Amino acid sequence: MPEIRVSHCTRYRFRYSECRRCADACPHDAITLSDAGAALVAERCKNCALCVSACHTNAWRSDDFKPIDILREAIKRPSFSLACEPSGCQADAHIPCLGAIDAVWLSYMAKRRLPVTLHGSGFCGQCAHGKTGAEQLRLSLAAVDSLQTAQKLGIDSNAAEPAWVLPVLAEDSRSTPAQRSSQIKSTNVSARRSLFGRLFRGKTETGAEKTPNKQPALVPAQAIRAAAYMVSDQRELLQIVCKQKTDRPFTVAWHERLPLMQLSLQSGCTLCEACFRVCPTGAIQIEQNPHDWALTFQTDRCVACEVCLEVCQPRVLDAPVTWDARPGQAATILIKQATQRCSRCDRHFVSPTPEKTCPICSDDEEAFDAIFGAD
Known about the structure:
Blueprint (H helix, E strand, L loop, with lengths): L2 E2 L5 H4 L7 H5 L5 E4 L2 E4 L9 H5 L5 E2 L5 H8 L5 E5 L8 E3 L7 H9 L4 E4 L10 H24 L14 E2 L7 H7 L7 H10 L32 H9 L9 E3 L10 E2 L8 H5 L5 E5 L3 E6 L9 H5 L5 E2 L3 E3 L7 E7 L1 E2 L6 E2 L9 H14 L3
Parallel strand pairs: 5-6, 5-7, 7-8
Antiparallel strand pairs: 1-4, 2-3, 9-14, 10-13, 11-12, 12-15, 16-17
């Protein structure tokens, strides 16, 4: 059965995270969520592996389903076929559910122009995994299309690259074309995707905007748990997919099934560093010296887990709808501030406004005044 690496989970990194990618993808209600992470209800799990591909931080893994191993075998052949195990179809490799094969895997094969045939989509209506598996498959195919579109827009007409070979859904003799079409159409919309779309992509609903001139609440220190940075095979593979032979941009649109995201920062940052502390990949970093402090973002390391957007209390972090996803670009400076020196302890610190003392000394003074009274 799939295993959870809790330290990779955004709910572990930030105890107030609303991420539920794995739970939304699970058709068997076999995943429970809490402020300590996600957990598997073993007696309900049917080994569909949809949680594995849904998670952008690789929190879920399965010894029996490793897409990178399947990829190593696939690239040795002139063409490759995949089938879902419940369908019983013959193929070069079998996976628990077609929805479990991620968009990055399919995009890599398409860019290499290796034909991939997917068998079993005609059974989604009768399969226990099909409740969400068909939707995951549809989203993955749509994500492949969006990446191909980005590649086409970046082609230099004088040095055109060969077209991608897109994955093909095999004909299934036990279902009609109309049935196959309906089985991979969207049947539900994730509440989580809708939530982030409203809050962070220029679609904030009326009344949800931040109140002007109101100091946002700080994230409690215990709300963010420290853990080692994680590395994603999907993200590294996506570097190859997004690489251009020309110097033209690879303009891609945000998509739920792609571990890709860009960040921008609006005015109002409190320099609390919560986004840096919660980031599971090290995409957000702080560069500091005696004179300057800067918050930077490295697109190549981001897996679009979006926990930084959640943790930002003033809601000034934003995720653009489209951006240039070419690998190897320099880190973006989100905000840069001159450092200040505390008149009391001589430490260097940063603050949105000029201050005489650092936050530590200011807290000490407030505590002293609360105990002994102000002069």
